Amino acid sequence: MAQDFPQSQWYEGSVTLDDGKTKNGVIKYDLDANSIQIAINSKIETYHASQFYTFSIIMQEDKLKRDFYVLPFKNSAGYERPTIFELIAEGTKSLLAREYIATTTSSAGSYSGYSRYGYRYPYYNPSPMGNTTRRYLAFRLFLADDQGNVVALNSKKSDVIEELGNHQKELKRFVKHEKLKVDRVADMAKLVQYFNTLENL
Q: Which top-rank group of organisms is this from (predicted)?
């Protein structure tokens, strides 16, 4: 089933290179390698994140345009390198995401879908023991300020609100009233958009 995940498919799109040139074609991206491939007139070109600024793709079935940007980010070893992030919400604080394939095992017949933007990515790989190993699309979330500084978010509500900085009382009330979960992409997008609204008052 792995070929059905977004990173293994080709999409109509465009890329802006580090010299300012824009190329249009069919794009396949690899967040693990921080690279993309673009097919133009049957010729495939490969670019690492250090060679372009941004790229966009169109998911035809969902009529969804997805925008990705390259920003410097320190990896687990402490080295800063160009890293591809998807832009989810933009403003004084911007919400970014990096998708990855997660795996969970559950008893036969049980199912919990992961939803993003209203569409689902369920994947099943039945095991001989009668359990189901499910591979699904999950997301790591990040915040970026208007200077392009990126920090990783965890799934603790208080940490996320503290990372946003200002308007903490208002944000806590908003999270409670809207019943938001900070590990959900759509809920975090609402929270960041609300924060940006407060910043612009």
A: Bacteria
112-140: pLDDT as tens digits = 443 444 333 444 344 445 567 777 888 99
Burial class (CB in 10 A: 0-12, 13-18, 19+), 118: exposed
Domain boundaries, the chain: 2-152, 154-201
**Coil, strand or helix: which one is 173?**
helix
Are 137 and 116 contacting, i.e. CB atoms less than 8 angstroms apart?
yes
Length of the chain: 201
Answer whether 46's CB lies under 8 Å from 35's CB: yes
Q: Sort 32 into a burial class: Cβ within 10 Å, 0-12 / 13-18 / 19+.
A: exposed
Q: What is the pTM of this model?
A: 0.84
